[in-house]
Specification:
heterodimer, A: 639 residues, alpha+beta, five-stranded antiparallel β-sheet, 24 strands, B: 377 residues, mainly alpha, 3 strands, 3% strand
């Protein structure tokens, strides 16, 4: 080959190449010798040391859970804290037979039998080399486990913290609860951050402020034996292991504690409101109209969030979830109710503003209303009628006919626009979420809500009943309280505020959440005054619907009762409470603010199936207001 | 590349023989050794992959693809390989430049080139193209290379190496330099030049340090003192030494390696699979693997010594010795002799790309052996 290069000496080149090849082969054998020497050194000479390191003792990196932040009320009362507790934990790779181990634990009543399958699945899906928490143990159970510890390789107890709510059911819906991390949670959280955390906020503040409350994960190195028991822990260098010296530099990276959250709630007021609602279903929401602070947020009946932190058995959870009174449901934010007559002050204001009606103009109430060209009678709650009434009387006595007429005169479009300005029909934007919007009906709403074409048309009769807060209109208790606060402050709109501040317990840095002003409702002062006086009449005039409940208050209350029909009565039938099933009884509503001349509290009370607003809801409001103004000196009413 | 076309004209007699059944080229000792190593590797991988058959099957498929490459390449006459060499080399450099401009970032480094249907690492091509190019260059010239020719050879080796190192993929760059360097050494560079290069390499270490990424520096530091960071960079090497050491002479038995199965050992199916083998099959298991490797390399060196022209000789010698380099770097890294560089254990580590390259290299060896007689004068 390569005849073109005459100087090429094939033999010489081949000899050179072969010599290089042989040299390379020699080097190769030398290097292989070095490698084998090294392997002999590791695997024969130092075999004992490495066997000990591998078999007897192991270095494990254990994630450390951060301490969850505390929750306070506005006066510094602790609403959620952490208490020491025993946790039963399992190290998956050190358990030979998971099913047998779990079965044994169930037999000794250390693990709930119903939880067994769930736990097995959890252990199997768990990240390797991280412990899985099986259950919380009482002191007695922890002692019972301790004497049997040798029977369960890979299972151990450790000291942990458990979420505790000192007030039990108090403000349960606002605070929410924490419970075991579910597979749904795993999809949204940063798994690394939750490596050591077993519980996560599920509702309320616990969920809404999970990021702040949780904190940051830490890590520590431990020397553990073959069964996963800790032999040497840098945090407490008390125990010793034979070859602990073989592993130097045990390190700990401490977790970052969660931040503390201060709520706007006044726990004293909250507890009074809850006591007043005891035995009823419904909600109480109290707001400071000057800044939007939520002073009380009650949904009744409530539940004990502590049961979730200790691990609710599936049976108990089903019972709680299937309770017909639905204690887990947050009625204050997500309960939607027809507002009934409490909508009247708002529509009265709309009439003053949009129609320019004279406050003193009287109209006849014959006890029913008929649309022109129609025979259907829209009845007043008082069959004989209210006689001649003006706007003031119509609110004080809650005359229905007056508002049938007003609604028709305003038209549904104006009503919709006006009610929405007060925040109806949309979530108020409270920090914890979970709110429903309720419904402010309109032509557009009806078009999109119904599938059949004939249902999509807005009928005049629907405008009529919207005038007394029936028909399609629904509101949530928090919307009602919010709108009442706007009414009380003569138009200033503040977003309801549940969280006042978040504090970093380590640095002491406080992030405050200032009141959020969302604008104002622009209406003449005299017109606000007319409505305020009419609402005062409700509680101060003998024929007022709230007179009985508000009699003798040392502060002046502006209020309005409401009674919302749960089911409709046929045209010529009478509603008789005792004949109606409890669940079909009317809802009682009451809105109020006080002191009327310079309001510092606005509230809404809804009592489900409680009967009338005057008898069921107004007394609850009275108790709340009395508690709120207790100890304060207020000028008694002038007349 | 006018040289290529001139050469084509110069040897009209060396026929481009059409392939037929008679000319199918095989080398049974080589193929058998490869298959035994692969089978052994799959057994160890089954353990390292947590007894996951699906993952093992994927590795089996990769192996099949690589064997396909082996058979295809082994049928290409070395003459054709030589004629294609400059084009392959230039295409490889071009692709490397393309990766720099528009490559995908995988694992923090820019290595992959997306050609719509397939993604591949052009740096893999260079593992073969660089020794081929060196051999091609010396094929026309007298051995040993003259001093002036050394500069061209340096350019052939270091241009792609620098491009790869900048991706950054220090491991592959190192392998490319090794492959090219070995070829130059086999070409007969004088000992004085080798000594000079050695001095130069030591002298340039601070410069190299300057261009390294942080994680690369950390690896070197860890190599020098693994206990300095037992949680981070030093963790791998400590755990792999424990795995090897606790394996002893006979090992803990298949599927019984606690270091591997309790997840102490990182990267156990890829770069550190040697440690799994050492833990479960002990020193004897490792010696068996090393013996198989040496057998394979010995067969390669025999083929090189038997080859009759400069190109095939240099290429065969280089491919065989580079293979040893792979084995040594990986095993040396796992037992703490060398710093951690991402070099897989040939034919054992899970992963497809480098296996295809390796198999193609052995395909060339088979082709060189099989076509020898056809090209004999």
């Amino acid at each position: 080959m390569n005849t073109a290069v005459p100087l090429k000496d094939h033999w010489k080149e081949q000899r050179l190449f072969l010599s290089r090849l042989i040299a390379a082969a020699v080097i190769m054998f030398v290097l292989t010798g070095v490698l084998v020497y090294r392997l002999v050194q590791l695997q024969i000479v130092e075999y004992q040391l490495f066997t000990e390191l591998s078999q007897g003792n192991r270095l494990r990196i254990e994630p450390l859970p951060p301490t969850r932040g505390l929750v306070y009320d506005r006066n510094g009362n602790v609403l959620a804290e952490n208490l020491p507790a025993w946790e039963l934990v399992l190290t998956p790779e050190q358990v030979a037979d998971l099913d047998t181990t779990l079965a044994e634990l169930v037999r000794n009543e250390l693990v709930d039998a119903e939880e067994r399958e769930t736990l097995a699945a959890l252990v199997r899906s768990h990240r390797r080399f991280e412990n899985v928490m099986l259950s919380n143990l009482s002191d007695e159970e922890a002692a019972r486990f301790a004497v049997r510890r040798h029977q369960y390789p890979g299972v151990d107890i450790r000291e942990g913290l458990i979420r505790h709510y000192p007030y039990g059911e108090g403000a349960a819906h606002a605070i929410g609860y924490v419970a075991s991390i579910s597979s749904a949670d795993l999809e949204v959280i940063e798994r690394r951050e939750y490596a050591a955390t077993s519980h996560i906020g599920k509702t309320g503040i616990e969920r809404g402020f999970e990021a702040e409350l949780h904190g940051g994960v830490g890590y520590r190195q431990q020397v553990v034996n073959a069964q996963g028991r800790v032999l040497l822990d840098p945090a407490s260098r008390t125990e010793s292991a034979p070859s602990a010296s073989a592993i130097s530099n045990l390190e700990t990276l401490w977790p970052v504690p969660g931040k503390h959250v201060t709520l706007s709630l006044d726990m004293d007021l909250q507890l009074v409101a809850e006591a007043a609602m005891a035995g009823s279903r419904g909600a109480v929401v109290a707001i400071d109209p000057r800044n939007g602070d939520l002073l009380a947020l009650v949904s009744a009946p409530a539940f004990d969030p502590n049961r979730f932190s200790t691990g609710l058995s599936q049976q108990d959870f089903r019972a709680l979830n299937g309770d017909p009174n639905n204690p887990l449901f947050n009625r204050a934010l997500a309960g939607t109710y027809p507002p009934g007559s409490v909508v009247k002050p708002f529509l009265g204001l709309a009439a003053l503003h949009h129609l320019g009606i004279e406050p003193g103009a009287r109209e006849m109430c014959p006890g029913f209303f008929v649309l022109p060209g129609n025979t259907h009678r829209y009845r007043d709650w008082r069959p004989q009628g209210h006689g001649l009434v003006d706007l003031h009387d119509s609110i004080v006595q809650s005359c229905d006919v007056f508002y049938y007429r007003l609604a028709v005169a305003l038209g549904i479009d104006t009503i919709e626009q006006f009610l929405k300005a007060f925040g109806f029909g949309a979530p108020t934007g409270i920090a914890i979420g979970g709110e429903r919007s309720g419904v402010v009906p309109s032509r557009e709403w009806k078009r999109t809500q119904f599938s059949r074409r004939e249902d999509q048309v807005w009928f005049p009769g629907e405008t009529v009943i919207t005038g007394i807060g029936q028909g399609f209109t629904t509101v949530t208790p928090i919307q009602l309280a919010h709108a009442t606060a706007v009414l009380a402050s003569r138009g200033m709109i503040y977003q309801p505020r549940l969280v006042l501040a978040v504090e970093d317990g380590v640095t002491g840095d406080v992030t405050e959440f200032p009141p959020v002003n969302l604008g104002y409702v622009d209406i003449e002062d005299a017109q606000w005054q007319t409505i305020h006086e009419a609402m005062l009449g409700v509680s101060e005039e003998p024929q007022g619907s709230g007179f009985t409940a508000m009699r003798g208050t040392p502060y002046r209350v502006a209020g309005k009762t409401g009674t919302a029909q749960v089911f409709s009565i046929a045209q010529e039938e009478e509603y008789e409470e005792e004949n109606v099933d409890e669940r079909l009884r009317d809802h009682g509503l009451f809105i109020a603010f006080a002191p009327a001349e310079d309001p510092v509290i606005a509230l809404a009370v809804v009592v489900e199936n409680g009967g009338g607003g005057a008898s069921a809801a107004a007394p609850v409001a009275r108790k709340v207001l009395d508690a709120f103004f207790k100890g304060e000196e207020y000028v008694t009413r002038e007349h | 590349m006018s040289l290529g076309s001139i050469e084509l004209g110069r040897h009209p007699a060396t026929v481009l023989r059409p392939m037929n059944a008679r000319s199918i080229v095989v080398d049974f000792p080589l193929l058998a050794t490869i298959l035994v190593i692969c089978a052994y590797g799959l057994i160890v991988l089954y353990s390292a992959l947590e007894e996951n058959s699906a993952l093992l099957l994927r590795q089996g498929i990769r192996l099949g693809v690589a064997l396909g490459a082996f058979f295809v390449v082994s049928q290409i006459p070395p003459r054709l390989l030589r004629l294609w060499t400059p084009w392959v080399f230039c295409a490889g450099v071009g692709l490397l430049l393309m990766v720099m401009v528009s490559g995908d970032v995988g694992g923090g480094a820019q290595r992959w080139l997306d050609l719509g249907v397939i993604r591949f690492q052009p740096s893999e091509i260079m593992k073969l193209a660089v020794p081929m190019m060196v051999a091609w260059f010396m094929h026309e010239r007298t051995l040993p290379p003259k001093f002036s020719q050394l500069f061209v050879l340096m350019l052939i080796v270091f241009l792609p190496a620098v491009l790869i190192a900048r991706q950054p993929d220090l491991g592959t760059a190192l392998l490319v330099v090794a492959a090219g360097g070995i070829t130059i050494l086999l070409a007969g560079v004088s000992l004085r030049v080798i000594a000079f290069a050695g001095v130069l390499a030591v002298g340039s270490a601070p410069l190299l340090w300057h261009f390294m990424r942080d994680y690369q520096r950390a690896r070197v530091m860890t190599f020098l003192n693994p206990e300095s960071d037992p949680l981070g960079a030093g963790y791998n090497i400590i755990q792999s030494k424990i795995a090897l050491g606790s394996g002893g002479l006979f090992g803990k038995g298949w599927l019984n390696g606690t270091q591997a199965h309790l997840e102490f050992l990182p990267e156990r199916s890829t770069d550190f699979v040697f440690a799994v083998m050492g833990e479960e099959f002990g020193l004897l298991g490792l010696l068996l693997l090393l013996a198989l490797y040496l057998g394979l390399i010995g067969r390669g060196l025999f083929i090189a010594g038997d080859a009759q022209e400069t190109f095939t000789r240099l290429l065969a010698g280089s491919l065989s010795l580079t293979f040893f380099f792979y084995v040594f770097v990986n095993a040396g890294m796992v037992c703490g002799l060398l710093p951690i560089v991402g070099v897989p254990l040939p034919f054992v580590s899970a992963g497809g790309t480098s296996m295809v390259t390796l198999m193609a290299g052995f395909g060339m060896l088979v082709a060189i052996k099989g076509n020898k007689k056809l090209l004999a004068p």
